Structures are given as C-alpha cells and as structure tokens.
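Field reference: sequence -> structure
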Amino acid sequence: MTERTTVRLPEDLVRHAKRKAAAEGRSLTSLIEQGLRRVLSEREPSGKVRRALPPVSMATGGLMPGIDLDDTAALQETEDRGYAGRMS
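Structure field:
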C-alpha cells in the first residue's frame, strides 16, 4: 500500500531532482523513494567508536650524555649543531 504525504523541500533541490528524474526517464516519486531506501538501509553507527592509537616508541635508554634538561641554552645549542650538521 502506498501512502501520500507532503514534504517541504528547498526549490532548488526540487528543480534539480526533477531534472535528474526526467533525464533518467522516471518519476520524482521513484527518485525520492530510492533515496529514502538508500539512507534507511545504511547501518546505524554503533555507540562505540574504535579509535586508532598513535604508535608508541619502544626505545630504551635516556638522555644523551651531557644533556641537562634544565639548561635550555645548552639544549638550543645542541639542537643548532644538529641542524647545521644535517644542512651540510
């Protein structure tokens, strides 16, 4: 059994839908029906989303010899030397 209903849609959407239906040689009703069936057949998202965790380093060791995290000037100088070495 089919049911009549009234829906309110933006004019530009209706125009576009009518053109598409005509180009495919079908009715606007069949186009809307197909769209509704497609949307309703999509799987509902489950409540839980599995998140991908970033990779975790398994590196061992610690600071390089002579590195003092409290001496920011020395840290900057070490970084600058490393950068200069990579650039040459």
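Note: Residues 11-41 form one domain.
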